[in-house]
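Handout, page 2. Input:
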Amino acid sequence: MPMPIARIPVENTPPAMGLGLWKIARPDAPALVEEAIRVGYRHIDSACDYGNEVEAGQGIRAALAKGLCRRDDLWVTSKLWNTYHEPQHVRPAVERSLRDLGLDHLDLYLVHFPIALQYVPFETRYPPAWIHDPAASKTRMEPISVPLADTWRAMEDLVSAGLVRRIGLCNSPIALIRDLLAAARIRPAVLQVELHPFLTQEKLLRFCREASIAVTGFSPLGAPSYVPLGMATAAESVLEHPVVTGIAAAVGRTPAQVVLRWGMQRGTSVIPKTSRPERLPENLGACEFALSAEQMQAIAALDCGRRFNDPGDFCERAFGTFFPIYE
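Output:
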């Protein structure tokens, strides 16, 4: 008889729709975050590396001051950057994010990449980004050897100290997660990975369901965030695929709403990024309808393994260092 699939504890499941803050310009972030909370968002996804946590915190505080929600209604995520993987740097890193966000705790703190880089002090550069010394004649990343288990123990200490309520991983393949589970005192609550109809990652999702790890999909709309970076072409937009546009017409919704609904209906949270306040209610509207089993299958069949956010590609091109993390 097959073993029953473990259920993910409700308290470890982020709200299904969140606002991703990657690439949100700092001047836009305060008003955008406040407006997102006003229209109903309760999940804010930030990171040290995004460079806008101070401004995001201003938006959160403004929303709380106006009584748009209570702090306990919000799920705020941040992430440990690559240069802070050595255990002694983990707590100062989260304390810096908390100070910038104006919060006394995070709902979730994630290891941003399974990539350990040489430490860069706050006073030298913050956020430190990927390149160790931007002034060097030949710029490159400076990887160091830090076992993820060592970083994870320092992450566990953040939970014990009350600074974060949950810890988790980003951009991590199954073998690495399985290895960490064997050593962890506190299991990862959430895995955040790239997920969209061109990269469905079915085996990874099944593994996480059976391991009781909630999953958040970043870049849930696929290519649009990567076209300006030269990491995708406009022709790769899933929003213009005939399958998606046909389903959108059939259900009376926008292609973006259909793709976001597909992500949520798979049991994952989605964190679309937008800089346009008018897009916030549109994205949230993905919570208001359902797709049929046939429509879900048709969208899933678009999977072609297209990963837009791959360090094995962009690190060498942009940062002078070949650093694959996926096969």
